[in-house]
Amino acid sequence: MAHYSYKTIRPLQGYEKIQFQNFLSFLIRNSIIQCQFSFNKEEHNNIVLILDVDECEANLHNCSTGILCTNTQGSFTCECDIDYSWIENQCVANPYREDARCGGYYIAPNGEVAICNKDSDYYCCSASYWCGSSDAHCLCSACINYRGLSR
Protein backbone atom coordinates (compact mmCIF):
# COMPACT_ATOMS: atom_id res chain seq x y z
CA MET A 1 0.00 0.00 0.00
CA ALA A 2 1.47 3.35 -1.03
CA HIS A 3 1.90 6.06 1.57
CA TYR A 4 1.00 9.63 0.71
CA SER A 5 1.76 12.83 2.56
CA TYR A 6 -0.22 15.93 1.74
CA LYS A 7 1.15 19.39 1.09
CA THR A 8 -1.62 21.95 0.83
CA ILE A 9 -1.17 25.00 -1.34
CA ARG A 10 -3.17 28.01 -0.09
CA PRO A 11 -6.57 28.65 -1.72
CA LEU A 12 -6.01 29.62 -5.32
CA GLN A 13 -8.07 31.98 -7.39
CA GLY A 14 -7.20 32.73 -10.95
CA TYR A 15 -4.09 30.59 -10.99
CA GLU A 16 -2.59 29.47 -14.25
CA LYS A 17 -2.11 25.74 -14.62
CA ILE A 18 0.63 24.56 -17.00
CA GLN A 19 1.09 20.90 -17.98
CA PHE A 20 4.38 19.84 -19.60
CA GLN A 21 5.54 16.24 -19.97
CA ASN A 22 5.93 14.79 -16.44
CA PHE A 23 5.44 18.13 -14.67
CA LEU A 24 2.27 19.83 -13.55
CA SER A 25 3.06 23.44 -12.66
CA PHE A 26 1.02 26.15 -11.02
CA LEU A 27 1.94 29.78 -11.60
CA ILE A 28 0.96 31.67 -8.46
CA ARG A 29 1.96 35.29 -7.95
CA ASN A 30 5.07 34.88 -10.12
CA SER A 31 6.05 31.67 -8.31
CA ILE A 32 5.94 28.30 -10.01
CA ILE A 33 4.95 25.28 -7.94
CA GLN A 34 5.67 22.02 -9.71
CA CYS A 35 4.28 18.55 -9.12
CA GLN A 36 6.73 16.08 -10.63
CA PHE A 37 5.93 12.58 -11.84
CA SER A 38 6.24 11.18 -8.31
CA PHE A 39 3.41 13.39 -7.07
CA ASN A 40 -0.31 12.92 -7.42
CA LYS A 41 -2.46 16.04 -7.57
CA GLU A 42 -6.01 16.74 -6.41
CA GLU A 43 -8.06 19.92 -6.58
CA HIS A 44 -10.95 20.73 -4.23
CA ASN A 45 -12.70 24.12 -4.15
CA ASN A 46 -9.70 25.95 -5.59
CA ILE A 47 -7.33 24.32 -3.09
CA VAL A 48 -4.60 22.27 -4.69
CA LEU A 49 -3.41 19.23 -2.74
CA ILE A 50 -0.08 17.82 -3.83
CA LEU A 51 0.30 14.23 -2.70
CA ASP A 52 3.85 12.97 -2.29
CA VAL A 53 4.30 9.31 -3.21
CA ASP A 54 6.59 7.42 -0.80
CA GLU A 55 8.97 5.82 -3.31
CA CYS A 56 10.65 3.81 -0.55
CA GLU A 57 7.48 2.14 0.71
CA ALA A 58 6.16 1.63 -2.83
CA ASN A 59 9.54 0.10 -3.88
CA LEU A 60 9.97 2.71 -6.63
CA HIS A 61 13.61 3.44 -5.74
CA ASN A 62 16.98 2.15 -6.94
CA CYS A 63 18.73 1.83 -3.56
CA SER A 64 20.80 -1.37 -3.39
CA THR A 65 20.95 -3.96 -0.61
CA GLY A 66 22.48 -2.51 2.56
CA ILE A 67 21.35 0.98 1.59
CA LEU A 68 18.47 2.74 3.35
CA CYS A 69 15.87 4.51 1.26
CA THR A 70 14.56 7.75 2.80
CA ASN A 71 11.49 9.43 1.34
CA THR A 72 11.76 13.16 0.61
CA GLN A 73 9.27 15.58 -0.93
CA GLY A 74 9.03 14.51 -4.55
CA SER A 75 11.94 12.10 -4.44
CA PHE A 76 14.07 9.87 -2.20
CA THR A 77 17.65 9.51 -1.00
CA CYS A 78 19.79 6.42 -0.50
CA GLU A 79 22.06 6.16 2.57
CA CYS A 80 24.20 3.40 4.00
CA ASP A 81 22.58 1.32 6.74
CA ILE A 82 24.07 1.64 10.25
CA ASP A 83 26.22 -1.46 9.70
CA TYR A 84 27.69 -0.07 6.45
CA SER A 85 30.04 2.77 5.51
CA TRP A 86 30.36 4.72 2.25
CA ILE A 87 33.71 3.68 0.76
CA GLU A 88 34.75 4.24 -2.85
CA ASN A 89 31.22 5.08 -4.05
CA GLN A 90 29.50 2.11 -2.44
CA CYS A 91 28.19 0.87 0.89
CA VAL A 92 30.59 -1.63 2.43
CA ALA A 93 29.83 -3.76 5.51
CA ASN A 94 31.66 -2.41 8.55
CA PRO A 95 34.51 -4.33 10.19
CA TYR A 96 33.36 -3.02 13.60
CA ARG A 97 30.22 -3.40 15.68
CA GLU A 98 27.92 -0.65 16.94
CA ASP A 99 27.86 -2.20 20.45
CA ALA A 100 31.65 -1.60 20.83
CA ARG A 101 32.50 -5.31 21.17
CA CYS A 102 35.69 -6.48 19.45
CA GLY A 103 37.94 -9.49 18.96
CA GLY A 104 37.27 -12.95 20.35
CA TYR A 105 34.06 -14.42 19.03
CA TYR A 106 32.44 -11.06 18.21
CA ILE A 107 31.61 -10.99 14.52
CA ALA A 108 31.26 -7.71 12.61
CA PRO A 109 28.67 -7.01 9.87
CA ASN A 110 31.32 -7.86 7.26
CA GLY A 111 31.47 -11.44 8.62
CA GLU A 112 34.94 -11.16 10.15
CA VAL A 113 36.13 -10.82 13.76
CA ALA A 114 35.16 -7.31 14.87
CA ILE A 115 37.75 -4.57 15.27
CA CYS A 116 37.43 -1.12 16.86
CA ASN A 117 36.74 1.90 14.69
CA LYS A 118 40.06 3.76 14.47
CA ASP A 119 38.20 6.98 13.60
CA SER A 120 36.05 6.91 16.76
CA ASP A 121 36.85 7.79 20.37
CA TYR A 122 37.02 4.05 21.17
CA TYR A 123 39.88 2.84 18.98
CA CYS A 124 41.56 0.22 21.23
CA CYS A 125 40.33 -3.34 21.90
CA SER A 126 40.83 -4.50 25.50
CA ALA A 127 41.62 -8.01 26.74
CA SER A 128 37.92 -8.29 27.71
CA TYR A 129 36.87 -7.55 24.10
CA TRP A 130 35.53 -4.03 24.53
CA CYS A 131 36.48 -0.99 22.43
CA GLY A 132 37.65 2.03 24.41
CA SER A 133 40.49 4.50 24.83
CA SER A 134 41.52 4.14 28.48
CA ASP A 135 44.79 2.58 29.65
CA ALA A 136 42.87 -0.68 30.28
CA HIS A 137 41.85 -0.71 26.61
CA CYS A 138 45.08 0.47 25.01
CA LEU A 139 48.07 -0.42 27.21
CA CYS A 140 47.59 -4.04 28.31
CA SER A 141 49.69 -6.78 26.71
CA ALA A 142 46.65 -8.23 24.88
CA CYS A 143 45.24 -4.82 23.88
CA ILE A 144 45.13 -3.73 20.24
CA ASN A 145 45.40 -0.05 19.29
CA TYR A 146 43.76 0.25 15.85
CA ARG A 147 45.13 3.73 15.30
CA GLY A 148 48.58 2.20 15.55
CA LEU A 149 49.80 5.18 17.55
CA SER A 150 51.37 5.11 20.97
CA ARG A 151 49.41 6.97 23.58
UniProtKB/TrEMBL annotation:
Record-annotated EGF-like domain positions: 52-92
Alphabetical keyword list: Disulfide bond, EGF-like domain, Repeat, Signal
InterPro entries: EGF (IPR000742), EGF-like_Ca-bd_dom (IPR001881), EGF-type_Asp/Asn_hydroxyl_site (IPR000152), EGF_Ca-bd_CS (IPR018097), NOTCH1_EGF-like (IPR049883)
Keyword Repeat (UniProt): yes
PROSITE patterns tied to this protein: ASX_HYDROXYL, EGF_3, EGF_CA
GO molecular function: calcium ion binding
Transport in keyword set: no
Name recorded for this polypeptide: EGF-containing fibulin-like extracellular matrix protein 1
Organism for this UniProt entry: Holothuria leucospilota (Black long sea cucumber)
